[in-house]
Amino acid sequence: MAINLNENWYQNAVELEGGSVLLYQRADSPSGRWQCRLLVPNNGGYVTKSTKKTDIDEAKKVALDLFNEIRFKIQHDMPVRERNFERTFGEWIEARSAFMSAERVQWHKDTGRRYLFRHFNQHDLTQINETVLAQYWEWRQSPASTLDHPNAREKASSSTLYMERDTLNQFFKWCERESLIRRRPQIEMPVKLVRNRRPAFAVEEYRRLCRKMRSWCREHEKPDLVYQREMVRHFVLFSIQSGLRPKETKSLKWKHLSTFTSNDGMELLLVHVHPLTKTGERQCVPMPGALRTIERWREMSKYVGDDDYVFANYWGEFYRALERPVNKLLEYAGLRKDNFDRNRTAYSFRHTYATFRLLYGVNVDVYVLARNMGTSVEMIEKHYGHVVPQQQADMLTSMRVVNRPRKEIFNDGILAGNVVPFPQR
User: Fold this and answer.
1) Is a pLDDT exceeding 60 seen at residue 422?
2) Among 6, 105, 126, 357, fewest CB within 10 Å belongs to which?
């Protein structure tokens, strides 16, 4: 290979392996370290690396080792060039963003910036294996991973770690499919996922909340505060009647609401959920009372244009911090915490909707309910599985009449015929 030794870039150039390896020093580098340019066979171009050596003999050894490594990778169908984790992660998001909601895309970006890049940028993408991943989980469970984020918990919750695992799984699957890595690493979690039962409201608590909301709205005389509290009250009622996520409800504009007539002639509300929310665009049919709630609030609201937010703040803007007055309302009503001392939040209204539908709905199909709520049957079963025994109480407590002599009937209340289920002793 003919090399122009007078080029400013290649100083003191030395050829090895018939020109496939070129050692040189850069004119703009005062360190005097030797660089190497390695030819990738089969028209693969070049790979340039630093040998990190100033001695020529040591630099030759490093360069030849690197060249042999390239040949080994080619023979075993492995990626030759190093891949930066952060850059490749960005390519993955760009390639998959059309299939994710804007909120999900932003979550991936934030997770990458806060945690993933800080750990995995130290490694070439092709070298990330189970050991590197184990080191990541160890780091994520230490306070060191949250030092740069004062609002973050001192220790990440198990649900957060599992969400990060899902992100990494999706990313590595894509890398494998795009032939950027030979094999995606197996991700083993060091913690067990702890799913806390979502705090909802019992029927009596819901009735108490409704009573307290009315008095909460009346106790202030300032018009702006009364207006805000009425808006919060209708937000709460609509959330329980629709099962929408808090952000989905906050993002609603008047043009996203319409009505239709059901098969039995009832006029119902139809909600068109914004495509940029968590699970993307869908339609939701709330409970019948939601239509009256919306009509009543429309009569009171100052902002009823098609592009106005249904639950806007006092100035007609998107109410980003709506959860704050919601929490104050719950404290006022004495319902901020449930019986297990868990905080209720705006999300509790969604969980109350799901619980009431499962408990008091007639022949509720879990699949249809999941579609209406923008979730999966699996998530319904995970978060509301505790409702099933109550939902099926009639079946669980029903008793078959048996016509057998009294002495043959087990005295444990499981079978009952012409005797009481739990005989007196």
Assistant:
1) no
2) 6
